[in-house]
Amino acid sequence: xxxxxxxxxxxxxxxxxxxxxxxxxxxxxxxxxxxxxxxxxxxxxxxxxxxxxxxxxxxxxxxxxxxxxxxxxxxxxxxxxxxxxxxxxxxxxxxxxxxxxxxxxxxxxxxxxxxxxxxxxxxxxxxxxxxxxxxxxxxxxxxxxxxxxxxxxxxxxxxxxxxxxxxxxxxxxxxxxxxxxxxxxxxxxxxxxxxxxxxxxxxxxxxxxxxxxxxxxxxxxxxxxxxxxxxxxxxxxxxxxxxxxxxxxxxxxxxxxxxxxxxxxxxxxxxxxxxxxxxxxxxxxxxxxxxxxxxxxxxxxxxxxxxxxxxxxxxxxxxxxxxxxxxxxxxxxxxxxxxxxxxxxxxxxxxxxxxxxxxxxxxxxxxxxxxxxxxxxxxxxxxxxxxxxxxxxxxxxxxxxxxxxxxxxxxxxxxxxxxxxxxxxxxxxxxxxxxxxxxxxxxxxxxxxxxxxxxxxxxxxxxxxxxxxxxxxxxxxxxxxxxxxxxxxxxxxxxxxxxxxxxxxxxxxxxxxxxxxxxxxxxxxxxxxxxxxxxxxxxxxxxxxxxxxxxxxxxxxxxxxxxxxxxxxxxxxxxxxxxxxxxxxxxxx
Length: 589
Hints:
The protein is an alpha+beta fold. Helices cover 44% and strands 24% of the residues. The strands form 6 sheets. Strands 3, 4, 6, 7, 8, 10, 11, 12 and 13 form a 9-stranded antiparallel β-sheet that branches. Strands 21, 22, 23, 24, 25, 26 and 27 form a 7-stranded mixed β-sheet that branches. The radius of gyration is 33 Å and the shape is extended. The relative contact order is 0.06. The model has no long low-confidence stretch (mean pLDDT 90).
């Protein structure tokens, strides 16, 4: 109880401060704290369902007056903890069962140390945390073979390294100088190559190039890197990406210029940069709009800004409704229509920036001076590239909203030309639908009517199919082949019939015929063959197995399948093999 009381305080304060459970960094610490408390409750207090979230009001009641932040975020704290508990309890029940079995087997062998390999399987395959494994082992007077566990972990890391292995050459220095970024103001720059090196990855050979003055923005803070070209003595070298390595802007190219020491003109793809800038600014506007609609607890948890779209993750405890999304979209688009000019300060003291209301990303490290980007009421710390005014965005359109983790939602959106493309595609779809319904004035009503009529027709077809099944069943039973004390009932080879209908006939026969019988069918549908076997319980009792038989016969139709001892089906590719497959099945009786 003391462990749980201590841990619930930690969780409530951490979540109120903006940190959510995750698989990385501080978020992982929070997740482990919660999971350890849940495990204590599960094992020692018999709590088989989520319970920690019920303690949030008690923390708020005892500490909320001194710390009003935890009271303001109570709903978020409760939702996040409950979601995380529910998720972990599923893993916990499974993991504890497997660990109990492993401990029992180890004790039977007269040992107190469990295999590190088995513990790694628990961790890697079933998601059972290592620290909980060690804790439970200690409680049961047992230990873990750590060397074996670490060996398995290293093997996995080696596999991951091999999958993404990169051969990196030595840097070749061409000119002396200090690299600098001029891309906020310029998209072209006269410069020179300072150094380069060759890298090889999965048979691809690329070159990393460092230049003195670069207008290319290197991938950072969720924004993708710029592309463009370097022109060296008239030779154009395409830059396919720009990355940040050890605080250095590295330009990726598929080849080096013939004369690396020559005069260089660096040119960014301006249209792509503008599209990226539009989406990055749109991210800021949506961040602001969501805070207005959902509340001040909304905090950015990650983003991806490309030329085609933007993705924005934020803290929120439940699905954002269509109405809330539309309202946030309207606020953001109103700011677009106002054509608010960019205001920026590239080296503002961090305390000044905070007084200005600039929003910092939780977990990000900032220096004494920061860049502040402001569009009207939207003020954020940001090092990315932005549009000169919101009007250049044209329009923002949210295309999806989903969950990515406990208490974290994701919005995807498009802007500018991509928003226009989206509307054009939707208009084309709408036009096509109208044409399909003879350009009726009320398309929604016409589709609703068609759906209702289709449902009625489906019922009629199902009724007709049942009648056909009854007719087929009676005729087939009458023509049954008798072999000893077994009735062999079969459809003509190659009958055109859906597999579900064949199955229905077989089960109807099984309900009506009480003697020893087998129903065998080799049918087709749209040229694809299907084998079906249905047997009476009396035949199954003799040791016959429909699933085993059909697997053998299915080889003749170049297919496979299975099922239960009394019923099995198999599909294939070779309809010419149906006769031989049915002969094999009949030979079993």
